[in-house]
Structure formats: structure tokens, C-alpha cells
Specification:
Helix content is about 25%, strand content about 25%. With about 450 residues, the protein is of the alpha+beta class. α10 (about 340-350) packs antiparallel against α11 (about 390-405). The longest helix is centred in the middle third of the chain and has 14 residues, at about 280-290.
């Protein structure tokens, strides 16, 4: 096992803190770290894709599980896989797709580990049908405070608290996942442009769930009549008889799952000085080009599965565009019937001319059982902003108030700046989570910068 002292941040590169990082080679070494933890406790970390401070532990220990990445076995008949927590969804997809299966839920990046997907209870593009990631976990192996590994099953309080529990109930070492059957390596994709937010919401709901996967990019720099305009993308798994003329293309796509994904949208130009000051005009131009360059409507376009779900992974690293201070990813959800809150938030950000190049709108379905699981029925908007943007804290505090007043919530797994009283107001089952943690881990062995900041 390798050990070093290192400064760590989340993917957003904000608020670095120093911890002792352990990289275990097996479960026994991971258990030894938990048993020998210091007074500042320990937290698990995967590929570091959490934008905030959920996988940091200032002055304590960080258990880097990226080396525990074995795929133990795939049951291609029943659609079940057993794997270590450090396996990335990207690698899982490469292994499973040629066998006719997919990971149960795919978020917008494949560079997330299975353990991270469980700890964040990640939703995918078809949450209304499939729910979040942990709903498809048959069992998980959890390293608890006493250094023992327990098999935890769905329907138990410990399982529910671990799903979305951000590593605070223990260390997920492995899991058994139920998979999704597919017959080709392609998606049939429809895209359409919407002129404003009302138009976008109407197009979102008009098709129902006929095409199960759906998300939209919103231009948060457009104002006036164009406020909230965007591009809606929907998809379904292609079948061999959808486009008989493309049968050979389907076979090629299945063979080339591991090949680099060609970006479906042009990459962002380098912006001097990040996205602040005059360069914000370049961000607005980038959004304009993206919107105008999209077809008004296109149906039945065939794309390889990785290109549909993980197109951003093929783009260059965009974080330098946000300046040396890093980026803040802000994600929230509000219920159906609270569309006016969504309108107010979009108008507020647009009026501020905040340089939001990335903004993704989704629809969520039934709530997941975890007390800290993020997804709940309604609309979800996620955007990135430069951390050094003047007045950003005040802007997002105001949005927090809008969201909380509407009964919504901010995503804890991506948070880097929320106040503890706001988190308590948004997550009414937080007291239940705290009580379970106090029983299982009275000394607070599992801690993170996020847990200390929000009092989780």
C-alpha cells in the first residue's frame, strides 16, 4: 500500500486541503487504514470527480480506492455483475456493451467509480423510469467503523443511508449490480431547439417518456425573449431493425466501444483570463454558436452509446477556462408545479450575465429511498460558474433561498459552499441520517470536509 501526504481538491479545484492518502491494494489493507485512523477520521475517494469537498478530509486520512478496480464476474445470462468499488463506469461500459448489457444507470460522465455512484446515488438521463444508481444494486460490501466488511442488502436502513450517504456510513468496497439489456451499441437520438424556457419545458413534457433518455442544454446567457432557450436531446436504444441499412454500422459500433468518442459539439475556445471580465463576451458567443449551430429538429440520428451518454469526456479539460479559482457546480431540483421558481432562477442568472457555458436541465421521477439522495420528482438544473466570479456567494445564497422556499434541494454530492442551516431545511430526513450515524459510528470515524462544513 502506498502512502503520501497530498493537497486535494474536488473536480472544481476549489478549497484545497491536505490529508494523508492511502492507496490500498486489497480489502485487508483498506480495513487496516480504517482501524488505524487518526483523530480526524477517514473518507473514501474514487477518481476525484465530485466537484466539491465530499472526498476531502483536512488533516485526516483519505482512502483512495481507484486501485481496487476488479470486475469479479459477469453473468451474461441474467445480467448481473460483481465488481470492486474502484471500477469506473467508463470501463464497465466497455466490458459490458459487447456482451449486450449496460450499467444500470449512466450519468453524464463515465469517469465515476461504482463506489462514487453509490455514495452519491447518481441519477441518469432516464431517472423517471429507472431511478438513481443504488436502486439497481443487489448488495454491497461495506467496510464499517470496526474494520469489518459487512454485506448490506437493499431495504435496510444502512443500505438506504449509504445510498447517497457520501461515504459517511462506511467505505463501499464492492457491489453486485443488475444490468440493462441492449441489442445494439447505438442510440436513436432526437434533438430540437427551443426558443425560450416555456418552449423548452413544453417540448420536454410533450413526448412523455416515449424516448426514455432526455436532457437539455440551456443558454443561461440569453436574455429578453430568448431567456432560457435551449437544445433538447432525447434518445432510446436502437434495435437492429430500426435502420436496416445501418446494420454494418451497428456491428462496427459494438466492436469499437473502447475507441475515443468524437465530440458531437465543437470544443470551447480558449478564453484568456478564464471566463471573467471581457472574456464573458466570448462565453456568450460560444453559447450563440452552439444554439444557432444546432438543427431546429432532427429525428432518428444514430450515435454510439458512449457518444450519447459521455460526449463531454471526449472534450478537452474545460476547467482552465474558469480561471485559477476553479469552478462551482450548482445543481438543484424543484418539484413539478414549481416551474415559476425555475423561471426566476434562470432569469436571475441571465440578468447577472453570469458566464454559464454548461447548464443541463433534466426531469426526475419518484424519489429514491436514501435520506440524503438528491433526486426527487421535478425539474433539475445543473450549471458551472467561475468560483472567482464577483458576488457569486451572494448570488447562490439567494438561489438557495428560492429553491428552499419551493420545497426543493441542492445536490450535496456536488456542493462546495452551502450553509448548514440551508442543508437542514432542504433535507428533512437529515436528522434520521445523523441518528443512524451516531449509532453506527459514535466517534465519527468517517468524516469529510463536506460533513464538517454542513454538520452531516
Amino acid at each position: 500500500m502506498s502512502v503520501d501526504t497530498v493537497s486535494l481538491t474536488g473536480w472544481g479545484r476549489t478549497a484545497p486541503t491536505t490529508a494523508v492518502r492511502f492507496r490500498p491494494r486489497d480489502h485487508e489493507e483498506a480495513a487496516a487504514v480504517v482501524r488505524g485512523r487518526g483523530p480526524r477520521g477517514v473518507i473514501a475517494r474514487g477518481l476525484g470527480r465530485s466537484p466539491g469537498d465530499a472526498a476531502q478530509n483536512a488533516g485526516g486520512s483519505v482512502l483512495d480506492l481507484s486501485g481496487l478496480a476488479r470486475i469479479g464476474g459477469v453473468d451474461a445470462a441474467d445480467g448481473v455483475v460483481r465488481c470492486d468499488a474502484g471500477v469506473s463506469l467508463e470501463r464497465l461500459l466497455r466490458v459490458l456493451l459487447p456482451l449486450g448489457w449496460l450499467p444500470p444507470v449512466l450519468p453524464g460522465t463515465g469517469r465515476v467509480t461504482v463506489g462514487g455512484a453509490i455514495g452519491s446515488d447518481l441519477p441518469g438521463l432516464d431517472h423517471r423510469r429507472a431511478g438513481s444508481f443504488a436502486r439497481h444494486v443487489s448488495s454491497l460490501e461495506l467496510l464499517t467503523v470496526d474494520g469489518e466488511v459487512r454485506t448490506v442488502l437493499p431495504g435496510t436502513a444502512l443500505f438506504d443511508a449509504t445510498a447517497g450517504g457520501l461515504g459517511l456510513t462506511g467505505v463501499v468496497l464492492g457491489a453486485t449490480l443488475r444490468l440493462r439489456r441492449v441489442t445494439t451499441g447505438l442510440m436513436s437520438v432526437s434533438t430540437e431547439r427551443a426558443g425560450d424556457l416555456d418552449d423548452l419545458l413544453a417540448r420536454f413534457t410533450a413526448g412523455g417518456d416515449r424516448l426514455p433518455y432526455a436532457s437539455a442544454w440551456i443558454d443561461l446567457m440569453a436574455r429578453g425573449r430568448a431567456t432560457g432557450r435551449g437544445i433538447l436531446t432525447r434518445g432510446e436504444h436502437a434495435t437492429p431493425d430500426m435502420r436496416p441499412a445501418h446494420a454494418e454500422r451497428i456491428r462496427r459500433a459494438k466492436r469499437s466501444v473502447g475507441a475515443p468518442v468524437r465530440p458531437l459539439l465543437p470544443g470551447l475556445p480558449p478564453l484568456p483570463g478564464g471566463l471573467l471580465g471581457p472574456a464573458a463576451a466570448a462565453a456568450a458567443l460560444c453559447n450563440e454558436v452552439r444554439y444557432r449551430g444546432s438543427a431546429r429538429a432532427r429525428n432518428g440520428e444514430l450515435r454510439p452509446v458512449p457518444a450519447f451518454f459521455h460526449a463531454p469526456d471526449a472534450l478537452p479539460d474545460v476547467r482552465p477556462l474558469y480561471g485559477r479559482g476553479g469552478l462551482v457546480r450548482y445543481g438543484f431540483t424543484v418539484g413539478y408545479g414549481q416551474e415559476e421558481t425555475l423561471h426566476r432562477v434562470v432569469r436571475r442568472i441571465a440578468a447577472r450575465r453570469s458566464p454559464a457555458v454548461r447548464a443541463v436541465l433534466q426531469r426526475f421521477g419518484a424519489p429514491d429511498p436514501g435520506p440524503l439522495s438528491f433526486a426527487a420528482p421535478g425539474w433539475s438544473l445543473e450549471l458551472d460558474l467561475p468560483a472567482a466570479l464577483p458576488g457569486l456567494a451572494r448570488l447562490l445564497d439567494g438561489v438557495d433561498e428560492e429553491v428552499a422556499a419551493a420545497g426543493g434541494r441542492v445536490c450535496l454530492a456536488k456542493d462546495s459552499r452551502m450553509r448548514p442551516e440551508t442543508a437542514a431545511a432542504m433535507y428533512p430526513r437529515l436528522a434520521e441520517f445523523r441518528e443512524l450515524r451516531a449509532r453506527l459510528d459514535p466517534a465519527g470515524a468517517f468524516r469529510s470536509d463536506l460533513s464538517r462544513r454542513l454538520g452531516l
